[in-house]
Design a protein that fits this description.
CATH superfamily: ACP-like
Shape: globular
CATH class: Mainly Alpha
Number of strands: 0
CATH topology: Non-ribosomal Peptide Synthetase Peptidyl Carrier Protein, Chain A
Number of domains: 1
Distance between the termini: 14 Å
CATH architecture: Orthogonal Bundle
Order of helices and strands: HHHH
Radius of gyration: 12 Å
Strand content: under 5%
Structural class: mainly alpha
Helix content: 55-70%
């Protein structure tokens, strides 16, 4: 996986999270915890984030399952990278 591609995925995820949370995309840091740092409600906000990610990246994530596996922005990016790599 090229670092340019990963950076592109990160910036797109930052945009999606920013749209949901009201933060600036540049304020959504890779190491941030989705709940603690970004104050995402994992039942409503995270669901909205995953719906947009699924639409944007053509993935089929289940938000409830992903909420149990992913804690940080970078972990979410990694999951997207893995899913899009596999097709």
């Amino acid at each position: 996986m090229s670092s340019e591609l990963k950076q592109s995925t990160l910036s797109q995820v930052q945009e999606v999270i920013a749209e949901i949370t009201g933060y600036e995309p540049s304020d959504v840091q890779p190491h941030f915890n989705l709940e603690d740092d970004l104050q995402l409600n994992m039942e409503t906000d995270f669901l909205a984030v995953i719906k947009r990610i699924n639409s944007h990246f053509h993935t089929h994530f289940n938000a409830k399952e992903l909420a149990e596996e992913v804690e940080t922005v970078s972990e979410l990016v990694d999951m997207i990278e893995d899913e899009t790599e596999l097709g």
